[in-house]
């Protein structure tokens, strides 16, 4: 699958838990930089990738507003079945860079936390990793701050835990 000539300056790319904006396309190379600067990234960070490798690298365009709304609605659903968390599956799912596949895992973590089960450090780390993967994209698409996006997602978690 070729991505040649499908991107333009100003387009957004999602790579796992990072959101980038294309600032130049030259000689078949896409030059991009973070949309938000985080404490662990230098403000002058820039990256380059050949246009044809964007898809191969697992980068994608952000979800649409409709897809984000569907995703948030999916988070409200309650899964009453008792399931064990497969941490390897969580990591593999995060690697897919697909929030729609992440929602059931987030719900499962919230359900387990809401049932008062022992919540391990690994559970907290997985929850944190999933949130890190989601917050910036939700913020970008809904045109809110990352903190507001975090609160919006966590609000869905509260609905799951208290229902």
Give structural attributes.
single chain, 163 residues, alpha+beta, Thrombin, subunit H, Methane Monooxygenase Hydroxylase, Chain G, domain 1, four-stranded antiparallel beta sheet, 5 helices, 14% strand, elongated
Describe the structure.
This protein has a 4-stranded antiparallel β-sheet with strand order 1-2-3-4. Helix 2 runs parallel beside helix 4, helix 3 (99-114) crosses helix 4 (121-142) and helix 4 (121-142) packs across helix 5 (146-162). The protein is built from 5 helices and 4 strands; from the N terminus they run ββββααααα. The protein starts with 11 loop residues before the first strand and ends with a helix. Helix content is 47%, strand content 14%. The protein has 163 residues and is of the alpha+beta class.
Model regions low in confidence, pLDDT < 50 over at least 5 residues: none
Arrangement of strands in the largest sheet = 1-2-3-4
The string of secondary-structure elements, in order, is: EEEEHHHHH
**Beta-strand proportion:** 5-15%
The SS-based structural class is: alpha+beta
CATH superfamily of the largest domain: CarD-like, C-terminal domain
What is the count of DSSP helices, taking H or I runs of 4+ residues?
A: 5
Q: How many strand elements? A: 4
Oligomer: single chain
Query: What is the CATH topology classification name of the largest domain?
Result: Methane Monooxygenase Hydroxylase, Chain G, domain 1
Mean pLDDT over the full residue set: 84
Number of domains: 2
CATH architecture of the largest domain: Up-down Bundle
- Helix content percent band: 40-55%
> Which CATH class of the largest domain applies here?
Mainly Alpha
Distance between the termini: 44 Å
* Alpha-carbon Rg, integer: 17 Å
